[in-house]
Amino acid sequence: MSEPVQRRSLLKMAAGAAATGWLWQAGAPAHAAGGRTDASSSALDTLVLGDRASERAHGLATTLSEVVTGGLGEAARVLNPPQAAGFWGGTLKADLACRPKGPTYVTIKLWGSEHGEDLGRLQLFAEGEQVGHYHLGAVDPLDIAAEDPRTPERFYFHTLALPAELTAGKRKVSLEVRSMGRIAGYAQSAADYYKDMTGPSRTIYRLYTHDEPYFAPADDDVTGTLPEPRTRTSPGSEIVDTITARVVAQAAAEASRTSPQLDLWYLEFLARAYAMPSTGAYRNGAVPGQITSSLDAIYWKYLSDAKVMTDSSQQWMGLGRAGLVLLALADELEPLLDEPVIGSPGAISNPGFEYGTSGWRSATWAGSGTTSRDTSVHRTGTASAKVTVPSAGTVGWVTSSKIPVDQGTYTYGTWVRTDGVGTNKAYLDVLFFDANGKIVGGDNKFYASGGTHDWEQVTARLATPASATRTEIHLRLEGAGTVWFDDLTLAPPSGSSYAPVIRRDAWTRMLLDSREYWRQHFPQYTNQAIICAIGLYLADRGLTWLGSDKAWGEKKARGYLYQSVGLTPWLGPEAEDGTPTKPLGGSYHQVTEKGVSKELGYAGNYGELQDWLSLVHDAVTGIGGVQDDELHAHLVKMTKARAVFHHPALDADGYRTMRIEAVTGWRDAEYPGKIAYDEGDKWDGHPLRLAALLKDPELTAYARQSLDEGQVFEVLKKTYDLGASARTNLNLLSTADDYAYISEAPATATRLPMTPGAPDLVFSDEENGLVAVKHGDEILYASLYWRARWGVNRLARVHLITAEGVERSATIWQDVDFDPDGRSFTEPDWVNFEFAVGDLAIPDGGFPPPGDTVHQAFAGQVLPLAKAPADVPAIPVGEESPFAGRASFHRCAYGPYLIAMNTTTDRTYTLTTEDFGPSRDLVTGARVGTGEKIRVKPGRTVVLRKRR
Q1: pLDDT tens per residue across span 926-938
Q2: Is residue 388 located within the same domain as residue 485?
């Protein structure tokens, strides 16, 4: 055996030696790249909280702590909040045994029935230094409380690796657990980020130290029993009716709006509702006008505030959604394209009252009367302006903004219809104002005929007074009767400087600017890239419909969607001339060959892209779209790949369900994952939606499983409970139709792959360093490429669910081989984020916690960088990279499992099983003896499990 080496020194040597890329466990032979691989590890030491003898033996010191009787009658401790409001709560500190050579792990035992974010977090310290980071670090806190219970009625175990230098040469290590409040991960200030601790922490039962990654508790260490699963029966299908009632009511409200709607989510909602017979917006004549006036208003807002396009609620998608709205009402909007935009300088806004009462205000000069927009009477279009005076009064409409005018003669006009009005009582009145708002020419009245008559045009040719710069148009009725006004006109003199903005030009500019900006800012993370690509695609489809000579056309526009979902390489932001910048080279795909999004490794919640895949499918094949069999097949593959990462669990009420695997998700900070079969509750997607769109039999069966287990209605309710916002109402608009399709589909025996009783499987994704195993009813997830954004960190993340329902999660050391590029990154002394946020006003490493300065136990760790593909431009050290931390070969031992993964395309590695013991290759089914050597071919993974 080679002499053990402290890990930090080992990494320094590896970073400086171009000839080798091996990183192995201390004390392991180099050729094997592995340490002991026993199936289990007994504790080096155990601290039993609440047991006086154990606490005394370990020198336990506590603050704000008390002993309680917890789950299954076990003694334990809770840590209480501070007496004065604050983030940090109670602590416990003790000395536990450790190994003077090699790795030491710390495991905590927690009760899985407790839940609620108010439990806060538990953070580990060793030798006075914080172990890991609060938010998305490679080593995370001991516990992050979530709204749902993690393992109801059972204990679970969470394991963290300690830096080797903290325990080198020691027999004992000083460990401390500090309680803390919850964290708001997206907060933009320290005050909002760190929440005060408001109640007791999660109950802490035991702390263990051990020297193998896998920890097996002693036989007398109770773990609890998996409750007998029950099937949820409430809520039921009535939630579909509840959702339908809300979206129908909202559709009616949006259709009857008389002011512009600036929210593009609601405009799409209204455009889709216009084609749905179940809503009051269906073929409603007011909808085209409402959408037109709203798009006009969005155009003006966009001109005054670029954030509408860049960092509003439509972020990454830009104004692309407006393109979809145009396509949805193409026939109705086409006749309006060559009219002036409402609010256009030198033009009358909303001259036919087609767009509600936008551009007008009602006025009463004397007496009383009523004004309204009348959709039952109109000369052209769908509406007119109505004025009624019962007996006496002067009432009417006035342009809400004064219209700029030049010198010269203008022709003003309106069409008038009357019912029982007196002579010279219904009229057009034009008033002029100077630059200071003073009237300089008023009451230029031009009358319609009296009595009762059909439409009659009233016109006036007026020279602009010398000092006038603006005009105001009045439509008045003086005395009893009813009058309607429609189709106003304003013809400027030749050479007027106030040429109106034509709608076709305005909308083209808006969509073109959005497309051009976002193609030059094409984001890298998979979900963001997909959102952006949808925006680019829809913006270009809108440009094509508007007749722009700058439209790319279907093939090129769809190419960005292909990039975003991994059908073709992602080429990154483009230069202004359209040249791809290729920041990750010319062969980087957003999605692996197996169909899993890359991000910077497996993503749990963020990797659930079904909501955006639905929108990709709909954008291409939906409104006025085309059939794309290749894209359809790819979306099906991606969705099925995600199905492997939905595992059996219990919901908050103890009912059987399936949850998203989140413990091994690199962008996940809440465990357990959300309930999901085909899809979970999302802002932009809901259960049943993608299955109803793709109509693949397996995906439909997964959706049916959620019906059979009574969970789909609970998830739909959670989606509904997100609130009655524009975003959620658009999301839920199709719920009734999707439910009808899935519920009427033929029942089959097909279930999600990880469902109890389903066949065994091994899923490996070498591009993502990812493994999922089902062995009987035991499930193992392992992320071998674990949050290695800066360099090769040799860490893996595992989540094991035994057939008995005992869960373990762990961040552990593994053995790797990689191609070094000769550089290294030194881990900074950050305790919050393990990353920098370049585009926000957040300091590198995130906001420091309140109170005394806290130092990072991993600070100073030197991480060697792996070599990137030859065509990748140089990525600076310390800049997040999907290549810097990727290994060529992984050897990860965890309990009864030994995993070997070859991520290369051109090399074969040899796995030496050493003393792993008799096992079975779960991929091939072959028996493997102790000490056998197995050749691991390029792009292949071997998963061995000890034979019982």
Answers
A1: 999 999 999 999 9
A2: yes
